[in-house]
Amino acid sequence: MGKNYVDIENDRGETLRYRKHVNGRGLIAHGAKVHPTAVVELGAYVEPGVQIAAGAHIGRGVWVEADAVIGPNVDIAPHAYVGSGAAIGAGSKIGVRTHVGSGARVAIGSLIGDDITIADGDSIATDKRGLHLAA
């Protein structure tokens, strides 16, 4: 039987230990909290301090940086990036290759399309069709 963890060296020469999540086999860093009903697909990385709520789905190749918060039933499509300290509201959908900047906020139920960039610190809200709502 294979081991359930992987050690990876970061840019600063520090070794971080990641465990394989039971639902999807994505890599979860020590110190991250992922609800048991969440799915973190193979090839996804979840960094320390991240919180992922019940029913969330993190696609293949997604990178969730430190201290980000992913709400319940959020769906993040493959190869997206969620910056450090970002927050994704419950029921939101994040498209393929979308970049959510550090400290950015995505409102509850928002639909963010493919290949979108949300700048660091921005707040965004859309309706169920992906049309931007007035702030």
From TrEMBL:
InterPro entries: GMPPB_C (IPR056729), Trans_hexapeptide_repeat (IPR050179), Trimer_LpxA-like_sf (IPR011004). Pfam families: GMPPB_C (PF25087). Residues 33-121 form the Mannose-1-phosphate guanyltransferase C-terminal domain. This is Mannose-1-phosphate guanyltransferase C-terminal domain-containing protein.
